[in-house]
Every structure is written in C-alpha cells, then in structure tokens.
Amino acid sequence: MNEVRTRFAPSPTGYMHIGNLRTALYGYLYAKKEGGKFILRLEDTDAKRYVEDAVQIIYDTLKDAGITYDEGPDIGGPCGPYVQSERAAIYKKYAEELVRLGGAYYCFCDKERIESLKDENGVGRYDKHCLHLSKEEVAEKLAAGVPYVIRQNVPLEGTGSYEDLVYGKVSVDFKDIEDGILLKSDGMPTYNFANVVDDHLMGITHVIRGSEYLSSTPKYNLMYDAFGWQRPVYIHLPPIMKDAHNKLSKRNGDASYQDLVAKGYVKQAIVNYIALLGWSPKTNTEKMTLRELEENFSLSGLNKSPAIFDEAKLRWLSGEYLKEMSGEEFAALATPFLEKSKAYGKYDAEKLLAIVKTRVDILSEIPSKLDFLEEYGKIDPALYFNKKMKSDAQIAKTVLPAAAQTLAGVEKFENAELYAALVALAGDLGMKNGQVLWCVRIALTARENTPGGASEMAELLGKERCLARLSQAEGWLKEE
RNA sequence: GGCCUCAUGGUCAAGCGGUUAAGACGUCGCCCUCUCACGGCGAAAACCGGGGUUCGAGUCCCCGUGGGGCUACCA
Q1: Shortest-distance nucleotide from A183 CA to C1'
Q2: Which of A432, A438, A396, A20 lies closest to A239, judged by CA?
Q3: What residue has its CA nearest to the C1' of B8?
Q4: A455 CA: nearest nucleotide by C1'
C-alpha cells in the first residue's frame, strides 16, 4: 500500500476563499488521517493573473488555520520546485514526450483561424487541422520559429469514465472534448497539463479539488493513460455557496478567512465550521478541534450537493469556543477588541471581560456590549416599570434614596456583598427583591437590558459612580 | 445551445428498500433568574413534480422542473 499523498494547489490570484480553504483542509485531514503527506503547490502558470501578495496570503492563511504541509515552496521537499512557473522545462519535456506518444501534437494555427472556426454564438472547436501536418512540415515550422502551441489529441470516438469517490461514476464522451491547449505559445503549460504532470511527478495518490473539474477529468485520464502513468483517486468537492445561486467569492464581497478573523470569529470555529460544509461526522458531535477532525475525518462523510455558508451557525460555534476558553485565553484574544470600547481604561478590564465572555459570539461585538457604561444619561421614568417585578417610577422614588444610603454603607463593594445588602434593604422596605434590584439597576445604567444584574453593575461601576448616578437618577425622577 | 452534475425542514445534514424521517444552527415557547446572557426543557418546521420497478421507495430507474459547473493560449 502506497503512502497517501494529497495536495492543495491554489492559484495565487488574490485572497484565500473559504471554499479554497476547505479544499485545503480536506486534503490535509485526509493525509493526516491516513498517515500520509500533504503538499502545497502553487499554480502560477498564468502570468496575467498573478497578484503580488497572494502567495504570502496563502502561506499565512494556512499557517494561521493550523493546516501544515509536509512539502511546499517555502519548505522544500523531494519533488520540488513546488511552484509551477519554475517548472517550465519539465512541462516542455513531457509535452514533447506526449507528442511522441501520439497524445498531443504541435499546432501553428493563428488566432484568426481559430476565430474563424467559431459560429455566430462564439461556440466552436478546434478542427485538428495541425494534427495532419507531416513530421517534415512540423520540423520546418519549428525551425523557422513559427509560434506554436501543443494540443492534446483527443479521440473522436469513445467515452472516458472514472469513479469519483464522492460523485460515483462520471462519463464524458470524447466527442464532447476539444483538443485543448497543453502548452501555451509562451512556453508555459495550462492548468490542464500542469496538474497532470505535477500530480504524477509529485506522487499524488488522491486528487482533492473543486467540482468544476468533474467533467474535464476524463481528458486528464487520457494523458495519464498515454504516459502509462497510474491515475490518481479523484475526490471532487461541491462548491460552497453564498446563497442558492451564487458561489461564495471574494469578488462578490463575501468574507474571506481573514475577513472572518478580523470580525472576531474564533479561528478554530472557522476551521471547524468549514469542515462541516460538505462533510458530516459519523457521530452527532459537531464541535471539533483540528486534532479531533484529523481523527474523525473520512471520505465517506463527504456530501455531493452544494452547501450554503451560514454565518449564524458559525457565530454559534465561535461563541461555544469563546465560552469554554479560560479567562487568560479569552483575555488574550479579546483585549484588542476591548480596547475599542468607550469603557476601556475606565473600568477594571478583567471585570469587563468576565461580563462579556458569555454574552458575545464574535469578538467584534465587545465594544457595543460595553459602551453603555459610558453612555449614561437621562432616564425615561417608564423604564422603572416592570410588570413582573412590580416596580415603577413611584417605587423607584422610595427605593433610590434608600439604596444610595445602603450602598454608601457597603464596605466591600463586591457582587455578593452588594446583593446581600440590597436584598436586606428590600426586606427593610417591605418590598420584593425585584422591586429594589430592578430600580437600582435602571438608575445605575439607564438601560432596560444590561449584561448583569444590579449588584454586578454596581460592582463594576464602583461606589463613587454608583452614588453619583443614584442621586442623579433621583433628581431626574423628581423633575417628573 | 451541447456536455457533466446536484436536489431531505429557513440553513448544515443523517438516512443507503420496511424508521414515529436523526442531530445541529436559527426561530418560537416554558423553566432558572435582580433585566440580559448562560444553562435546562419543549415545540413548530423537510423527502421538487410526474411516471415506473417492488408486497413495500426519501432511498432504485426514466422524464420533467429547478440549481451549479464545464464548453479560454483561466484555474
């Protein structure tokens, strides 16, 4: 049994899409699961599409997501170079070899002739014109320096079939496949050729890629067969959609991995979530770390229908990761976001983080959850009304002054003590706990909803602010 | 247009000829509770349509409909 070798072969054309990342993740997971190797290869044969920082983004994203590779452009390996633009000579050699084997041929047709083959709809296919050139004619043109490409020689009849591990049997008639260009006139190969040569030379046993290659795979198999190479196992993956009609893509302004990280989604949650888009674990446990994914991944759980990216579920997962973190871990991740809050620097950071930890799913929500602390202002008396607590502005008028007095006397300004003191006050006043607590909380925060009860808010605010706010609130009540 | 391919709740998704058609997110309700959140419990919610095959079809076959892909000197 040969060692399993999978690869991720992105084209450095911009940002790392969620779909690309998932393809990389599955390749990585399968290799790990099988104790094999995962390889990174850059497919940069199209100079026109090259984007400056794209390569670095690919490295950074994979690293950030924890997807490590055993061989790749920046770390080397036995099958290098791992950048296609550095392998031009290799492709040329194999293209010429394929010509010798009859699987390809030189083509000297110019653009005009190719255009003339197309019908009014721009649809047309190459007519194998140059396939019929004699050896001498070819040699002559080559010697004369006539520009050429090398085309694949696809049979006119027959059917190409293969067994895809997720889609099952896929068949395409050769008559529906054009003699595509393998080697461009600039000497570089097209994807259609480079992927075959590289996957073979790099010993790739399992090709994991997007379903857009489903119907072109038979022509790759034609090349494997012509060379006498063993065909790899194919695993095509359905696309990740933005909605029922559109694929998730940066072009549509959809979130990339780094966008999601910047928004404050927990990285592990992102990886966990995308693993679930198109794959389902055997058990009902969906929350899994990368390590757990490595153990549980299996090709049989792969799904063949497109999956719509659901940010709501990602949020939930992110929140789950946040909640189970230790205070230190959470602080490390959350502090940069906490610094953007109006409350930052004015309150005990540890307390702020503790309050926000179970109330936030993504880190970027932190400022808005805390800003209210610094937005204290005139209180609408209606806020004091609460049916269940049986409280209203009238009750508040007697509660607030008494509460101010009580709080002034609390030594240890901490939740437990404050709660006890306020409950005791309720007893003294002959009121329900809720009547006192509700009124105090409203007076302290000027908000109907706050991330914590009256005593917690009081602790956070501190004695000085509490007393000041209480007296201010009392004043506003009297104006009514 | 031709070819490839997909189709279970709003979303992800289990199911692989016989099930009360899982589970998760979301939604809604209840409980807990000093509001919110957390947590607990519960509910609503699906087999695209039509033909077959079969004792029996979400599961197999065909057609239709709808979606996605390919049809580049892009990948």
Answers
A1: B73
A2: A20
A3: A305
A4: B34
Amino acid at A160: G
A415-451 pLDDT, tens per residue? 999 999 999 999 999 999 999 999 999 999 999 999 9
A89: closest CA among A222, A197, A7, A179?
Answer: A197
**B chain positions with any atom within 7 Å of a protein CB:** 1-8, 10-14, 16, 22-26, 33-39, 67-75
CA distance A7 to A294: 16
Residues 6 or more apart whose Cβ sits within 8 Å of residue A32: A38, A294, A297
- Cα-to-chain-centroid distance, residue A288: 15
Quick one: pLDDT band at residue A121, thresholds 50, 70, 90?
low
Judge contact between A301 and A279, C-beta under 8 A.
yes
Asked whether the CA dihedral A257, A263, A267, A272 is positive or negative, the reply is negative
Tokens 């929500």 identify what position?
A365
3-state DSSP call for residue A380?
coil
Element counts in chain A: helices (H) and strands (E) = 18, 11
Mean pLDDT over A315-328 rounds to 97
